[in-house]
Amino acid sequence: MINYNSAVGPFSHSKNSSVRIMYTVIATLMPAVVFGIYQFGLHSAWVVLCCCVVAVLVEFGCLKLMGRDPKACVDGSALLTALLLAMSLPPNAPLWLVSIGAVFAIVVGKQLYGGLGQNLFNPAMLARVMLLICFPVEMTRWVDPSPIDFSGNQIRLPTEWLTVDGVTSATSLSEATESLYIQDLFLGMQAGSLGETSAFLLLLGGGILIKKGIIDWVIPVMFLLGIAVPAFISSWIEPDTFLTASTHIFSGAALLGAFYIATDLVTSPTSLKGQAVYGVGCGLLVWLIRSFGSYPEGVAFAILIMNAASPLIDHYLRPSLFGSGELQKSSAKSASNSTSSK
């Protein structure tokens, strides 16, 4: 277990508990999840269900083995981790792959560090990176959306909607030379992971979290600026080589990462200055990996790298503490100057 003091009291308290926060975040994610199932078919629903069930059961078993209250498996943390992992997987991912990812996220990403609140890395992203490295073929099989047809006062289910197979397609991030329609990216009419395609629904959910005070605006805004500024400059200089800022932001897992993953209360800095540096670092790394790396998507890698840097950021950028040595020295110096002047 890692021991470091990122901040010291006194603290103000709200009515939010960790359980309430977890289920609030889950609730704001559900529209994007349901839309992903609508877009990609019935198998994607099995991906979500399998991931959630396996994660909760593994959490239950880990708590039992460690002699802790097994009821904590339904506190929402395992469910949220599973949901974020499922949203980052291909909609046609085989269930054995989903199960391996869920087990790895809970056991290695969370419980080996000591459980809730102790993990250094985001468990869902740790599991996604592991799957991508170990099973690159299965993790890069994308399919085109095949939504249900409601036209003509009839409901028509596409053949692909009821099967695992679909029309394979490249993601928008790998189509660097093709013109992409912002409307399609914004509404989710693109190939990609199960729950990251609808920019509109992710923005809506993220806005609700900021409005409710679950997350602060600093990390999401600085994250997106960290991507947008270098993307705008590079695409302006060499438009045939680099993707535009809008393509970077509205495609891939940029919005999911900015609002739901980088803002993880456990793995992100506590001070506002630290959060700003952390957010910019995440966004800049995403742009660098997408533009010059071997992977078209870099959100998971970028967040894990900045997770590792989070304690260091907090150490150097945390605010002065009430009653700290610096303030005491300053007060003593002021008192000494006042006495000598008299």
UniProtKB/TrEMBL annotation:
The modification FMN phosphoryl threonine is found at T171. Its main location: membrane. It is a multi-pass membrane protein. The keyword Cell inner membrane applies. The keyword Phosphoprotein applies. Its cofactor is FMN. Keywords: Cell inner membrane, Cell membrane, Electron transport, Flavoprotein, FMN, Membrane, Phosphoprotein, Translocase, Transmembrane, Transmembrane helix, Transport. The complex is composed of six subunits: RnfA, RnfB, RnfC, RnfD, RnfE and RnfG. NCBIfam families: rnfD. PANTHER family: ELECTRON TRANSPORT COMPLEX PROTEIN RNFD (PTHR30578), ION-TRANSLOCATING OXIDOREDUCTASE COMPLEX SUBUNIT D (PTHR30578:SF0). This is Ion-translocating oxidoreductase complex subunit D. It comes from Vibrio ulleungensis.
